[in-house]
Amino acid sequence: MKNTGFHLTSAQPERRLVNVFIEAFIVGAVGFAIAMVANSLSPRGLSLTRNYFPPAPTQVASATNNAGVVASPPLLATNASHENKLAERLAARGLRLIEFAGVRQLYQDPRREQELIVFVDARNEQSYLEGHIPAAYHFDHYYPDKYLPEVFPACQQAEIVVVYCIGGDCEDSEFASAYLVDAGIPAARLNVFAGGFEAWKTNGMPVEIGPRDSGELQQRQQ
Amino acid sequence: MNPPLQTTRSARAQDLTTLLARAVVGGLYVYMGLSKALYPVDFLKLLRQYNLFESALWLNIIAASLPWFEVFCGLLLLFGVAVRGTALVSLATLVPFTIVVWKRALVLQAASQIPFCAVRFDCGCGTGEVNICFKLLENSVLMLLSAWLLLTPRFRACLWPEPLTKL
After folding, report:
1. Between chains, do A27 and B48 touch, taking CB under 8 Å as contact?
2. Which domain holds residue A124?
3. Range A122-156 burial, b when 16+ CB lie within 10 A, else e
4. Structural domain count, chain A
5. What is the ipTM of this complex?
6. B97 or B156: which carries more pLDDT confidence?
7. A chain contacts of residue B68, beta-carbon cutoff 8 Å
């Protein structure tokens, strides 16, 4: 049996206590350095300098320090108050909120076939592959380098872009739209579908599975 | 001077407890750390809900480093390297995190008007949506085990049983 000769209750407790603190400091420093390297090497790693949640201009104005301020997430808002607040935030960004009826109309519009009306799915890859609005482009704004080369030209040539995420408290459609605006897509083209994919599905609309234009439609549940 | 080595039943029980504490705390850290490290965006979103950081830079640094840091600490405990220092780090991180999770649960309870132990939410701990009372109990057990590892007189089955200060 190995005795480490290091326990705190034996002789010279102060010295041993200091040693434990030094060891903890070394663990913390080395662990942090390794964690930073692992994050930079990981294909899913986060960019440290990017603000993933840019606040709407009104939120920025109310904050004391504008640089790099993170927008606060909503907390258990009711549907009505949540949509009102979302509409206010979108308006502050120059974006529009669109309801399901409007989205359905755009989906059935013949201009969609010519890609003058484009749908953009702002959820993560797994959710997108499990089902999305048919022919919707995938744009996970947390990894813009991966998706922007395909989605940006489509949005550039479109007259109307509908961006959606899961719905409810999901804010990814808002932040994805804000990213597209920053990238150069005119805000007037962008419409955020508040009900999101949940509203799309619950209204019995067609759902495409797998990659874009796979043509594989999900069977409607009876 | 170190206490004499004992091979009594109580000493063996103590060694077994220490080994078990390392396995449980280390194993949980590796599991919870990896589940966050593989989906850092999900962790970032959950961390943001606590409204702890006004600065995006700090939010990103914590979200990027914490999962891998947990994996690192978990591996140190499992392999038996710098166990006492890692146990202190574990305690030093568990205490504030538990307080933050508890305060968040109080806010959710006040907003939804339900009993405290009925509050369920994804605390960003790496195990998905959990019952708050279960989470607080789990964290208390982890803190107790970490305290045990900090104070226990000896370790066995360690890759590097000496303190790092002896390097």
Report:
1. no
2. 77-202
3. bbbeebbeebbbbbbbbbbbbbbeebbeebbebbe
4. 1
5. 0.89
6. B97
7. 31, 34-35, 38-39
